[in-house]
Specification:
The protein is an all-alpha fold and 324 residues long. The protein is built from 18 helices and no strands. Helix 1 runs antiparallel to helix 2, helix 8 packs parallel to helix 10 and helix 14 packs antiparallel against helix 15. About 13% of the residues have low confidence.
Length: 324
């Protein structure tokens, strides 16, 4: 028994991934707490096949020991263990989900312990963790609140959107930022309205968040996102430049920063009076009369500011007719 432990420990520390893999495979026949540290250490191995095998073999160990060991690793080596452990924790859901839920909800545990539980539950995409993560994102401990918001947002689950949306009003800026990115990751039509509401608020001090909301709207493959960007132009003059750039990039059109012109154009599009390339279409495939493909770089005059040739004048007249 003692000799086997020494051999396995030596093999687990080998520079060759094939040898480390063989050591981890040997643990399947040695499901004893004496070998648990070797199995847990293998969860952080640089070789994905070693980590995967270690997680699979940990199923043979008792749940309490695995939970304590994984949580200790997360707390002791955070944030360096996020990438290696994040890929294998779903394989250990049977051991970890229930005790991690208990740890997240326990106010007697340290914030770091609860943060580790939040991360683990997010990796497992736990159905049961959605509500607890959302509620704990409002805790008074800022670090824990951010961790819970990150865990909830990182799942990218459409059914989490109703829980993430209120976090856009959170008093902690970092939680609001995480919530915003979470809605962008979800990317369903439902997220358009809260993104538009955030970006349209006149006098909002967190302009960086508003600008990011505009950027997310620009990339959503839904027609309603175009209408939302025009609405942002109308309601929030401080975001007009960003919304204009987003609309230029998104539609291939260039009507400047006048909301009324964009409104008339969009009304013509939705009424069927003029054709319109759907979001996501390669703008290089659009006819020339569809206008500029992108806003000019900073410091470079736009077409409206430059001398206009006879050919350019004709093209501009054609473009302007689209909003008459």
């Amino acid at each position: 028994h003692e000799g086997a432990e020494t051999v396995l420990a030596g093999m687990a520390g080998s520079g060759a991934s094939s040898t480390r893999l063989a050591a981890v495979e040997g643990l399947a026949q040695q499901a004893d707490t004496e070998y648990l540290d070797i199995a847990l250490a293998a969860l952080m191995d640089p070789a994905p096949e070693v980590r995967h095998t270690a997680a699979t073999n940990l199923e043979a160990f008792d749940s309490h020991s695995v939970f304590q060991g994984v949580m200790t690793l997360l707390c002791a080596h955070w944030p360096y263990v996020r990438e290696p452990l994040g890929t294998v924790l779903p394989l250990l859901a049977g051991h970890l989900e229930e005790p991690m839920l208990d740890a997240l909800e326990s106010t007697s545990e340290t914030p770091r312990w609860r943060m580790a539980a939040a991360f683990g539950l997010a990796c497992m995409r736990s159905d049961a963790a959605l509500e607890p993560l959302a509620s704990n994102a409002w805790t008074d401990d800022t670090e824990l609140a951010v961790a819970c918001a990150e865990a909830l947002a990182s799942m990218g689950r459409a059914d989490a959107a109703p829980l993430i949306e209120p976090l856009l009003q959170h008093p902690v800026p970092e939680v609001r930022r995480v919530a915003l990115e979470g809605l962008g990751l979800i990317g369903t039509p439902r997220v358009i309205e809260p993104l538009k509401t955030l970006a349209s608020k006149s006098g909002e001090t967190a302009r960086a968040l508003q600008g990011r909301a505009v950027g997310i709207l620009a990339g959503l493959p839904y027609e309603a996102a175009t209408a939302a960007l025009i609405e942002v132009m109308k309601k929030n003059s401080s975001m007009r430049r960003e919304a204009t750039h987003a609309l230029r990039w998104r539609t291939g059109m260039d009507f400047g920063d006048s909301p009324s012109v964009w409104v008339r154009w969009y009304e013509n599009v939705t009424s069927g009076r003029i054709p319109h390339g759907m979001p996501g279409q390669d703008l290089r495939d659009l006819p020339l009369w569809f206008g500029a493909f992108a806003p000019p770089p900073d410091g470079v005059a736009s077409a409206d500011d430059s001398p206009v040739s006879g050919e350019d004048r004709a093209e501009k007249a054609n473009r302007d007719s689209m909003v008459d």
